[in-house]
Amino acid sequence: EEVKAPPNDVRSYRVVAMRNGLQVFLASDPSIDVASAALAVKCGSFQDPDSHPGLAHLNEHVLFLGSEKYPGEDEFSKYLEERGGDSNASTMEEFTTYFFKVNGPYLKGALDRFSQLFVAPSFDVSCVEREIKIVDSENTGYSGEDNWRFLQVLKTTVAH
Structure pTM? Predict the structure, then answer.
């Protein structure tokens, strides 16, 4: 699939369809030495069941905490930090996006660790308990902000 870009854009782009149906957007810029990847999942706070508000946000937190192949709770973040990178995620209304960056030569190892978080996440119970408290604390901290309140009204309105 062709990607339209401005005429003065020196980067190259490509869209690849994987056998499992996942679409991958590739961008290459030979002038930089940092590599990154992101994965957007079509599941956000609007999909939280009424009985479990914050579930998508909780999932965002616990996915980064290890996999069967790389069971260490901080394996992914340590790998990135030791190689000039970092990671983060964001849960929005309809999507959750996970992303990372790392020095270019370490992209393959970072992609392996990143993909394993989605293929076989560990969901260690002790980590989940702690992350529930963190997500609850974040939501409590936001609850006084107008944007957060507006989102809650919007979510309720859309759901009904």
Answer: 0.82
**Where are any strands of DSSP class E within 42-94?**
86-91
Q: How far apart are CA 42 and CA 110, in angstroms?
A: 23
Active-site hit among 1, 2, 60, 73: 60
**Span between the terminal Cα atoms of the chain, in Å:** 38
Cα 104 to its chain centre, rounded Å, is 20
User: pLDDT tens digit string along 30-65?
Assistant: 899 999 999 999 999 889 998 998 899 999 999 999
The H-or-E segment that residue 37 falls in is: strand 34-41
List of residues 6+ apart from 40 with CB closer than 8 A:
95, 96, 97, 98
**Which residues does 68 contact at the CB level (< 8 Å), separation at least 6?**
116, 120, 122
Based on the residue annotation, tell me whether 129 is a catalytic residue of this protein.
no
Sign of the dihedral through C-alpha 63, 66, 67, 70? positive
